[in-house]
Amino acid sequence: MERRDFLTRAAALAGVGGMLATHGRAGSAQTDGAAMGSITDVSGIKVGHFTDPRRPTGCTVVRVDDGATGGVDVRGAAPGTRETDLLDPVNLVDKVHAVVLTGGSAFGLDAASGVMRWLEAHQVGFDVGVARVPIVPAAVLFDLAVGDARVRPTADSGYQACAVASGAPPAEGNVGAGAGATVGKLFGMTRAMKSGLGTAAVSVGGFTVGALVAANALGDIIDPASGRPLAGARTADGERLLHTRDAILSGELLGPQDPGTATTIGVVATDAGLTKPQAQKMAQMAHDGLARAINPIHTMFDGDTIFALGTGRVQGAADVNLLGILAAEVMARAVVRAALTAQGIEGLPAARDMG
Prior knowledge:
The chain is an alpha+beta fold. Helices cover 23% and strands 24% of the residues. It is built from seven helices and 17 strands. The relative contact order is 0.21.
């Protein structure tokens, strides 16, 4: 499909705004995204968003009330995370009950505390005899440069997102962890573009694999089929996409870069049963999807982190190679959705605005 066709379809998508805790897609987004599927196609997965209207920021909760085997792989050099050591295959706990993706840089990790509070109130967690302790890994992206940096997700934000999580197809674009997401920052924020949150899923061999991603990369979002940029750094006049890779190869020097300006964070999930090593491998392979759809990726200023979840709702032996291949595919598709469903804001156009 040509890039213009993608953008024509994306331009029809309805937006989601305001201080909202949301889970369902809005307007025609549900119809448009149906062919791509969503992470909630995976049995046992629920998703909820909190989006703050005071500036573009928010958080997204992937909830697994019955617990899911978890894994993680961190590739970027500037991560902000919580409970990732726990997911190491050599460590004790093998089930997680939610994953939090959030804006607000390291401040946004507070959102996970609110998720824990909601889960504890609903008797969800790891039974330690005297209490149930919810296991809630989290990762943050840097969106403080968009609007008032004093506004960021809090514990109450996480609580609200967790409370509305459901199995409905989640909203995409300028919502939750993707509310303040931007891409194409290698030549400075004045030439960057708006991105957002996307999701996708596929079913093969009796198992479903889904992905959810907040694309906030230093680099460009690329259409894997054509190699063309969909969103990213713009030319100096702001009118066209620059194509960062080609510009660098032709000798254009990078602009001034500030630490902590980026990070793409996401979750891949399957209804297959996984061991912790298998979940970690699935998370590793899912990063291939980022590499297909974002260029460059895993830079010194990106804290790129992917979590993997296996709900075990579908019985039978799963081929981890197949699951990893599918995870990379749906992650790439979800990144493209993050670009195409985003809406531009002042000074930061989205893919649909470039014509």
